[in-house]
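Example for tutorial group B:
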C-alpha cells in the first residue's frame, strides 16, 4: 500500500509518500480500507516533534473507510461496514489496523467524507461543551478561532444549548462563516482588542468559559475576561505553547479554573465514544449540525495540506483522500 512516512521530524517536507507494508490485524482489530483522512493540528505537532513519536512513523489519527477484515475476537463491527474513527495513529495511509472498539459505524445517510471530518473535531467540541465545562443556556462563552474546524462546531453546539456566543476571527471572510454558524457577537482580533470588546459586549461582567485553541497569544487576556470562578479551557496552541505562570494569578483574578483536556481522556470507554459520536451523527442527520469540509487533497499532497492548516488558510475541515 501507499502511506505517508516520517523518518525525521521537521517541516512539511518530511512527509514522504512511499510504499509501506500492509498492516496485520490482531485478534481484536479490524482492517479498514481508508477512503478519507482527517488532517488536524496534532498531526503538525507530531510531524514537528513538539509531541514526540518514535521514528519512523505514519502520522494521522482520524479516518473513515470500509471494514475489509476482522480479527477472531471482534464483535463490534462486520466486514463491509462503513466506519469512522479517531485517536489511532497511522491514518495517513491506504489501510489501517484499528482496535475494533474504537470504530464507529456510519449512518447510511451520512457521506463517508463527512464522517471522517466529524470524529476528532466533532467529539472535541462535544466533550468541551458537555463534560469539561457543561454549558448552560444562561452562559456566555468566548470561542477563539471561531471559524476553524472546532470553532464552527463549538458555535453550533453552544447555540443548540442556548448559550450566548462571542467569537474571535482574523478576517471578514471568517467572520461571515462564524455568523452563518450562529455566533451572536464577532470580534476581529486583527483590528480590535478582544479583551476590551468582550468586556463591552458583556457590560463588564465577562464570560463563564473561554474555549482557547490559540494558546500563547490569547491566554493572558482570556483570563482577564472571565467571571469569578470562570474557566479557561486550553485545548490547543496554534500560536505557541503557553509559558509557565504563577498559579496565584488564578486566585487574584477571581478563583479561576484552567483545564488542559485531551480527547483521549474523554473517550476512555466504547460507551463514552459512541455517546459522543452518535450524538454528532444524530445532529447531522437532523440538520442541527453542519460539518464544513474546507478542502481536500490527495494523500500524496499531505505536505500542502499541512502548510495550509499551519498558515491558518483553512476554515473548516481539511481531508486527505487516498
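The residue assignment follows.
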Amino acid at each position: 500500500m501507499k502511506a505517508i512516512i516520517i523518518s525525521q521530524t521537521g517541516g512539511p517536507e518530511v512527509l514522504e509518500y512511499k510504499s509501506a507494508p500492509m498492516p496485520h490485524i490482531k485478534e481484536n482489530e479490524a482492517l479498514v480500507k481508508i477512503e478519507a483522512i482527517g488532517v488536524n493540528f496534532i498531526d503538525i505537532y507530531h510531524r514537528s516533534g513538539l509531541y514526540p513519536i518514535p521514528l519512523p512513523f505514519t502520522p494521522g489519527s482520524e479516518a473513515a473507510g470500509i471494514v475489509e477484515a476482522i480479527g477472531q475476537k471482534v464483535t463490534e463491527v462486520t466486514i463491509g461496514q462503513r466506519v469512522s474513527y479517531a485517536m489511532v495513529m497511522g491514518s495517513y495511509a491506504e489501510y489501517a489496523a484499528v482496535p475494533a472498539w474504537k470504530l464507529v459505524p456510519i449512518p447510511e445517510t451520512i457521506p463517508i467524507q463527512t464522517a471522517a471530518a466529524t470524529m476528532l473535531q466533532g467529539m472535541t467540541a462535544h466533550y468541551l461543551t458537555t463534560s469539561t465545562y457543561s454549558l448552560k443556556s444562561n452562559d456566555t462563552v468566548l470561542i477563539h478561532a471561531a471559524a476553524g474546524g472546532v470553532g464552527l462546531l463549538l458555535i453550533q453546539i453552544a447555540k443548540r444549548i442556548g448559550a450566548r456566543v462571542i467569537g474571535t476571527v482574523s478576517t471578514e471572510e471568517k467572520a461571515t462563516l462564524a455568523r452563518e454558524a450562529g455566533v451572536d457577537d464577532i470580534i476581529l482580533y486583527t483590528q480590535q482588542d478582544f479583551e476590551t470588546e468582550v468586556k463591552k459586549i458583556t457590560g463588564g461582567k465577562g464570560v463563564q468559559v473561554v474555549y482557547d485553541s490559540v494558546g500563547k497569544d490569547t491566554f493572558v487576556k482570556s483570563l482577564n475576561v472571565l467571571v469569578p470562578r470562570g474557566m479557561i479551557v486550553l485545548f490547543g496552541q496554534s500560536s505557541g505553547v503557553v509559558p509557565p505562570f504563577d498559579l496565584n494569578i488564578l486566585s487574584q483574578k477571581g478563583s479561576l479554573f484552567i483545564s488542559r483536556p485531551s480527547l483521549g481522556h474523554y473517550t476512555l470507554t466504547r460507551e463514552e465514544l459512541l455517546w459522543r459520536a452518535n450524538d454528532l451523527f444524530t445532529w447531522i442527520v437532523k440538520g442541527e449540525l453542519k460539518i464544513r469540509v474546507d478542502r481536500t487533497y490527495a494523500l500524496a499532497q499531505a505536505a500542502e495540506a499541512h502548510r495550509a492548516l499551519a498558515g491558518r488558510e483553512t476554515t473548516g475541515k481539511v481531508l486527505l483522500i487516498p
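The longest helix spans residues 112-132. Compare this with the pattern of hydrophobic and polar residues in the output above.
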